[in-house]
């Protein structure tokens, strides 16, 4: 095992990380290595932080980017049957994620973990057509990017009274990683009054929370709505509302989504380019709120589909 060049620095970081994350996990071990390398480089420059061979292992950055969590969407092992999987696919080398496992497979894996101490193989959920489920749920904006671009007039995470859960809510966004909101002004997240100038396309779109509640489209686990659910899903959390929320996204922003197709129609009518943001800014803003931005590939595929009808 490689030995840290600066053992005092390593032990200091280890103590701090152990205090922050008391329960043993691969994430905790990886975080110690990551923080030690970062501090060592700042102090010593390009020198090797470890003595011995095989010290420059690849994949640590990807591992952190994949955001490995247990089946509850949190870090660390709390129970004997906990299973640890990536919550986000980064490359083809990323192992099977939580989102690619069915509820039945997760329960099977938990049972195997409890009885045998480990899961020897995860089996991805397959659709009847043989594809990984859900293969057509592909938002291309992360929660951070949605707000970073400017969305909801800055009001999405404002304090609310939810008639669904019958209580006042505030600072819900602060339950997510701080890195999501780094560099984003608070008034772009929890502003009380809608300000369209905050939005990327400088337009006002959407209806009120009360309207969504009246239609019974809001579920207790995510009283702020679809994006609240997407934040949880992005973190690796799974619920019995996933199928409904995924289908809502597909109907609006997926390959057959009405808003995505309408945007392509408007671009073709005006003989514009796929990335001309002056065409249908309201539709683009709505799609952004649903974690999607039109790409050239999607535009070309839709044009090709229409040509072959």
From TrEMBL:
Residues covered by the DUF5872 domain: 4-113
A Pfam family the protein falls into: DUF5872
Matches recorded under PANTHER family: BLL5189 PROTEIN, ZGC:113208
Name of the protein: DUF5872 domain-containing protein
Native organism: viral metagenome
